[in-house]
Amino acid sequence: MATKYPRIASTYFRERGQQVEIIKLNGSVELAPLIGLADRIVDIVSTGRTLRENGLVELETIAEVTTRLIANLVSYRMKGRAVDDLCARLEAAIGRQGTEVAP
């Protein structure tokens, strides 16, 4: 099992009583099955396009994930306008993808 997230993958399979060998990779994990490095991968999937482009299919969902922007309070006080601008641009980009923005 190739992944960028070895602790998550290890915990997930151990809790299900499945013994798997975890190979930690950085970068394009979806290439691991293509080059014979692993039979399966654990990765974050948004649209599934990269999986399909590499002849892979999603077998199961391990966890739902969300993205959070966390700002240091002191930095926010000093650079609040830049942080607010970044938030507005992120919300606009997310809105174009049809994804809900939580407060």
What is the overall pLDDT average?
89
Termini distance? Answer: 36 Å
The CATH topology of the largest domain: D-Maltodextrin-Binding Protein, domain 2
Tell me what the CATH architecture of the largest domain is.
3-Layer(aba) Sandwich
Radius of gyration: 18 Å
Poorly predicted runs are: none
Description of the structure:
There is one protein chain. A three-stranded parallel sheet has the order 2-1-3, with no helix packed on it. It is mainly α. The protein is built from three helices and three strands. The model has no long low-confidence stretch (mean pLDDT 89). It has helices at residues 6-15, 49-53, 73-96, and strands at 2-3, 23-24, 41-42. The radius of gyration is 18 Å and the shape is elongated. The protein has two domains: 2-53, Periplasmic binding protein-like II (D-Maltodextrin-Binding Protein, domain 2); 67-103, no CATH class. One of its GO terms (molecular function) is ATP phosphoribosyltransferase activity. It is found in: Cytoplasm. Pathway: Amino-acid biosynthesis; L-histidine biosynthesis; L-histidine from 5-phospho-alpha-D-ribose 1-diphosphate: step 1/9. Its main location: cytoplasm. Its EC number is 2.4.2.17.
Overview features:
single chain, 103 residues, mainly alpha, D-Maltodextrin-Binding Protein, domain 2, 2 domains, three-stranded parallel β-sheet, 3 helices, 3 strands, 38% helix, elongated
